Amino acid sequence: MAVDRERIERLTRELLEAIGEDPDRPGLKQTPTRVAELYDEFFAGVGADAAAPLAHTISVSRGPAPETLPSGAVLLRDIRFRSVCEHHLLPFAGHAHIAYLPGEQVVGLGALVKVVETLASRPQVQERLGEQIADTIDENLDTRGVLVVMDAVHGCVTMRGGRQADASTLTIAARGEYTESTARAELIALIGGGDRA
Questions:
Q1: Which pLDDT tens digit goes with each residue over 73-98?
Q2: Among the listed residues 65, 90, 125, 101, the one whose alpha carbon sits nearest the alpha carbon of residue 176
Q3: Which residue among 6, 14, 17, 86 is the active-site one?
Q4: Residues 82 and 159 both lie in one domain
Q5: Same domain as 172, residue 84
Q6: Which of 5, 67, 111, 167 is close enough to 53 for a disulfide, judged by CB 3.0 to 4.6 Å?
Q7: Where are the alpha helices (DSSP H) in the chain?
Q8: Please, what sign has the CA dihedral across residues 142, 74, 106, 149?
Q9: 138 in helix, strand or coil?
Q10: Is residue 51 part of a domain?
């Protein structure tokens, strides 16, 4: 479902007028069009199927490299994401870290990135975004456990209210074996630092 660009342009003009600005002055004349393009990009995930990237799986035992069976978690760190907070329509951005214990089927790592991008491209709150990512992977991929750790900086914290420029928010969503804190401790340690190349 695409955003209604024409309507966004009209409403942006109205918003500019509501704050006392002249939407026809040179610096603002193209702003309604730019905002419509921005919203089309930022909210591309509205109505999109976040599970679609997980549909193509690879058999672990019968796949192209059965000698490389994962004996533990598959961990993808530092997936950059950006979203828009549904409370103030201000951006928040950071990193998502995803780990899962594969069963018989695995998925290409790019598919995990697409899940994050699709779900982040909606009006969101970070807590729900992490839970949605975990649910999407858990429900659509053969896993024994899923862990999603998100670390983000929120415009509603850094640019308004208390204006805490250095504050970030960390959330954790766990499914399956990773609901046990001891099972996820090693992964959280790896996400938090480890030896990064």
A1: 899 999 999 999 999 999 999 999 99
A2: 101
A3: 86
A4: yes
A5: yes
A6: 111
A7: 5-18, 31-42, 109-120, 126-140, 155-158, 181-192
A8: positive
A9: helix
A10: no
Q: How confident is residue 197, by pLDDT bands cut at 50, 70 and 90?
A: very low
What are the two backbone dihedrals, phi and then psi, of residue 84, each rounded to the nearest 5 degrees? -125, 125
24-36 pLDDT, tens digit per residue, is 999 999 999 999 9
Residue 47 inside a domain? The answer is no
CATH of the domain at 138: 3.30.1130.10
Judge whether 56 counts as a catalytic residue.
Answer: no
Residue 188, helix vs strand vs coil: helix
Write down the catalytic residue from 97, 117, 124, 126: 126
88 occurs within a structural domain = yes
DSSP string, 148-186: EEEEEEEHHHHSSTT--TT--EEEEEEEEGGGSHHHHHH
Which domain, by its residues, includes 145? 56-192
Task: Reply yes or no on whether 88 is catalytic.
Answer: yes
Q: Establish whether 97 is a catalytic residue.
A: no
State yes or no: is 132 an active-site residue.
no
| Domain match, 98 and 11 both | no
- Of 85, 117, 124, 131, which one is the catalytic site residue? 85
34 and 128 share a domain?
no
